[in-house]
Design goal:
The protein has eleven helices and 14 strands. It has 328 residues and is α+β, with helices and mostly antiparallel strands. Strand 1 and strand 2 form a beta hairpin. Helix 2 packs across helix 3, helix 4 crosses helix 10 and helix 7 packs antiparallel against helix 10. The chain starts with a helix and ends with a strand.
């Protein structure tokens, strides 16, 4: 799903966050001022807010920090650069995960990475929409091929969570935690999420697409569509979020080695570190399983990464999946 050429050019002209007159924009685009106006009215559909001031013109409420493949690759460690097969950046896409799942079927190489400025249908867990306005967040997916079947990949999303925390900490972001099974939290609010999808034979080679969404900047208007407590890096760092290219490189520096070594290392290599970031342990929660809800106190995770829930009678139950919400 590519943006129309006129919209791409308009966004590039406005990306600096400065005022541009309608006459200037029309001249640069080779269209009428009326055509410019029509395109400006459509930008909020992409999560881009426009300010219009008489006598000054138009500007974006926030300048766009465009992703740049060359800058990302230059910032990678030598190890990660060797693991990276291909880096795609799309201005607009339906879903980075869906795109790489399709590319996996077309024999794309292990280590193919897809980033998007805007996702029209970004997905979270259980088919939920992941809000990702143009140029506002990190929407990244990585394709990796494994020689063994999906069974050996148990707990991969937890290991990816550890990698994400390491990457953010390397940028001096503190106060982070992980919420089972794959959410990244900051002081009780959701900062990001991880989605792992697997395709292949039960006991043979398989392909994994690991997606990560991270809130860098969300406008209040976009955030109205989010139904849970949320936070973005702009808010955490008082408006000084790291450049998105640096952030993408930091994530790849941690995620690519985790994927490359997971068949040998497994979850055990990351288990204690995950537990140290656990922001649920000891908390009263409700676990949602389809139409059923179970209340208890989180007792951590077991050696296989399963959730342990302690009931009022002292019994402990193990869960392989479910959606958890905090009670109070």
């Amino acid at each position: 799903m590519e943006l129309p050429e006129i919209k791409k050019k308009l966004l590039l002209l406005l990306a600096d966050g400065e005022f541009h007159s309608g006459t200037e924009l029309a001249a640069n685009l080779g269209v009428s001022r009326s055509a410019v106006w029509k395109q400006l009215q459509k930008l909020p559909e992409l999560g881009v807010d426009i300010a219009a001031v008489s006598g000054k013109g138009y500007r974006l409420e926030k300048a766009i920090d465009w992703l740049d493949a060359m800058l990302i690759e230059q910032a990678l460690s030598e190890t990660s650069r060797a693991l990276l097969a291909e880096l795609e950046i799309h201005q607009s896409i339906t879903s980075t995960n869906s795109h790489l799942m399709a590319r996996a079927q077309d024999h794309a190489a292990s280590g193919t990475v897809c980033l998007a400025e805007y996702q029209a249908a970004g997905r979270g867990r259980r088919g939920r929409e992941w809000i990702s306005p143009l140029g506002g967040n990190i929407s990244m997916s990585i394709l990796w091929r494994f020689q063994q079947g999906p069974a050996v990949l148990s707990g991969l999303s937890l290991a990816a969570g550890v990698a994400a925390i390491r990457a953010l900490q390397s940028l001096d972001i503190k106060g982070l935690g992980l919420k089972w099974p794959n959410d990244i939290y900051w002081q009780g609010k959701k900062l990001g999420g991880i989605l792992v999808e697997v395709a292949g034979e039960a006991n043979g080679p398989c392909s994994v697409v690991l997606g990560i969404g991270l809130n860098v900047y969300l406008s209040e208007r976009e955030a109205q569509n989010i139904t849970q407590a949320w936070v973005d890096l702009q808010g955490i760092l008082n408006g000084a979020a790291p450049p998105r290219n640096r952030l993408a490189a930091a994530l790849l520096d941690e995620l690519l080695p985790v994927l490359a070594g997971y068949e040998k290392r497994g979850l055990q290599h990351y288990l204690q570190e995950w537990r140290s970031y656990d922001c649920m342990s000891g908390r009263s929660v409700t676990l949602h399983l389809g139409q059923n809800s179970i209340t208890g106190v989180v007792y951590g995770i077991d050696a296989d990464g399963m959730l342990l829930l302690k009931h009022e009678d002292g019994s402990i139950q193990v869960f392989t999946s479910g959606e958890v919400s905090f009670n109070g």
